[in-house]
# Entry
Amino acid sequence: MLSNIDTEQTHQLLKALIEKSSEINAAVVTTLDGHPCAKEQRDDYALERLATMGSTLMSLGDTITAELKMGTCRNIISENEGGIVAFMHINEDLVLITLTQQLNALGMLLAHSRRCAADIAKTLKK
Amino acid sequence: MGAGKTTAISALSEIPVINTDVRATDEAALRKERTTVAMDYGEMTLPDGQKLRIYGTPGQERFSYMWGILMEGALGLIILVDNAGDNPLGDLDLYLTHFRPYIEATTAVIGVTRMDVATEPGLEQYYDYLMQNDLQLPIFSVDVRERDNVVMMIEALVAMLEFG
Amino acid sequence: MHYTLSTYALEKRDKLFVNSMLELTKKKLGINWVLDDTEGQVTLVDIDQPAGVNFWEAYQSEKRLIAFADNNHVRAKLFLEKPLRVQSFTELLKQLSEHLDPLTSPPNTATATATPRSHTAAEPTPAAKPSLDAQHYDPTQYLSGLLQTALSAQETQMLSFSGFAPLYVMPQEKRCYTSAMGLANLNPSQKMLFAARSEQFSCAALNPALARDAIQEQGYKAYDIYTFIWGSALLSSNGRLLTNHSMQSFVRLKQWPNFTALPHQPTHMKLAAFMLKNTANIPRIASATQMPLATVIDFFNACALSNLLHIQKAQAGVNVNTHAAGEKKLSSEKRGLLGNILRRLGR
# Structure
């Protein structure tokens, strides 16, 4: 799905996201069929598994929005007792998953993650 | 994986099958273009108006968290194995090991697909596997594009639930 | 000549069992009893059912009744204890037939066995025709026997049956080749082929290479040789048990028959499901699955000739587990659901 150069560039963008946004604890890019391509985190999350589950969830989101004729699914947000997880499309084949432990950081998480997803998409187009 | 779960559900469902197929990017792509990552869903209305809901799970082990979710409260289980896959008996072992507690409490039916593409392992080897693992389950060679073959597996499942 | 039996207030499975046992009585004792629920000479009444008790009280002085119950609480002269047993039932019918006048009008053939019709020029002489009244099924008189002989002799053969594409038997490959047929839904002439007697086939030994050329030229489909051995046994047994086997032997399926490659009816799935999980004799299988005895025997024969059975001879005093896995006790709700699924699938 991604060449070595693409993977490295994507990894750099994830690294920058984590460094710039202290609230974001982890970020992972996965193919839509559940294979992680790049990941970065400050903690010790099982990101491989998160990547696969993210593909499942994103696909369900796409199926639900198609069923409801609501266009394309932009992102899925899981708000939890211990934090927030956001899943969003980078392009038609890749998904970005980010998470924060800050319960009041949803806006920031979505804003930074969307920008990062757009940057990755732009890099891959080149 | 690639055994035809989505096709089998399509053969029975009276609604267009709701699926979560995406483009395959790994070794699966060599055998098929798309793969299920969450579930397939089909429906059949029974004569008394009840709906029989048919769920298909993703085949790859990395999606095994979905298996438990979709099996919750299920009436029965049909396992499809692609005989033209890299290790069909290994695939069967993976599914039977994972689902063994459920199978012992209820039952399961095994359908071996694409035996026309790969003749080995033959059904005898599947029978041997079941015997070695002390499992008595119906097993068929099937072409899931044929509705009759899919119906036959359901019939066997019903018979096992009733008499087995 | 025949005698007639009615039933009243019997549960469905008991009625099916009675029907099977009437067939057995005919085969074993040569006494023809038929079910006639309108005007039987004798009526079997389930007096454990409220309707049965009412019937008993209303008709015990007018009709010849057999009480059927856990206990003979009505002190009936003719009584059968639950569950029905082959021995006591056939004995009672035998005794009754000695005291009743047989009827001569054509019976309602609820239990009549089908007689296969020959349609070829190779009609056997009456003397050579195997008797369907024979107690046992001899496969050597049918297609299954021809195929088994070809297998043991390892001889390539072409079998011709009037009105059908030739059947090429290739024992080295354990295959037969002929024109394509839908095994789950045989048409009447295909059924005739499977039920045909060996004399109705003309057999020719062939060079395997020549046979292969012919098969290729005609584009014939390959079938496992056991597809035909199984099909022949299933369709030509007519409720007669395979020679050298006992109804009382305990049997269990070694493996599930691959029904996608075998002629079958939906009922055979039920038998296979029960026999895959349970060790039981033929009458027990019939009662547990509520199948006519003849159907169970035909299925038994097909499985036995296809080497699919573990058979354990019944021995007096030996405690054989008749239901290894325990018979299923389904709620009526679940049973109804399963029935609805089958109905929806047109089965």
Notes: Chain B has a mean pLDDT of 93. Chain B has one domain: 5-163.
